[in-house]
Design a protein that fits this description.
The protein is of the alpha+beta class. It has a single domain (10-111), classed as 2-Layer Sandwich (60s Ribosomal Protein L30, Chain: A). Helix content is 25%, strand content 32%. It has two helices and five strands; from the N terminus they run E-E-H-E-H-E-E. The protein has a five-stranded mixed sheet. A hairpin with a 2-residue loop joins strand 1 (10-14) and strand 2 (17-24). Helix 1 runs parallel beside helix 2. The longest helix has 18 residues, at 34-51.
């Protein structure tokens, strides 16, 4: 267990493990296209990893949430562009609704050097 971040998203830290849940495209709003929303989500993900002084290889599990009826191709394409080398374990969950009209969301687990 660790401290819960009181911000918009739920972040738990404990030792060198980080769990981040609720990552959606900026402001949770629908961008002009599914492609733009997928790209924005991956940019936010990589920015967060860099802000934590991590690298993508520190991420050990990713859960992608995709709104039912939305083609996952855009998100999976952006994801494969970001994740190079050996990818972390991944789970895809189809959901009825996401926050702020989003079509995609994600959570991830990373192990930080410490």
């Amino acid at each position: 267990m660790g401290d819960e971040d009181p911000g918009d998203n739920s972040t738990l830290t404990g030792g060198a493990k980080l769990f981040f849940s609720g990552l959606i495209a900026p402001d949770g709003t629908r961008l002009s296209s599914f492609e733009d929303q997928a790209r924005a989500l991956m940019e936010k993900f990589t920015s967060m990893i860099e802000d934590l002084s991590c690298v993508i290889s520190d991420v050990v599990h990713v859960t992608l949430y995709i709104k039912k009826g939305v083609n996952p191709e855009y998100l999976l394409s952006e994801y494969s562009d970001v994740i190079k080398g050996l990818p972390p374990a991944m789970t895809i969950i189809w959901v009825d609704n996401l926050s702020g009209q989003a079509s995609y969301a994600m959570s991830f687990v990373a192990f930080l050097e410490g």
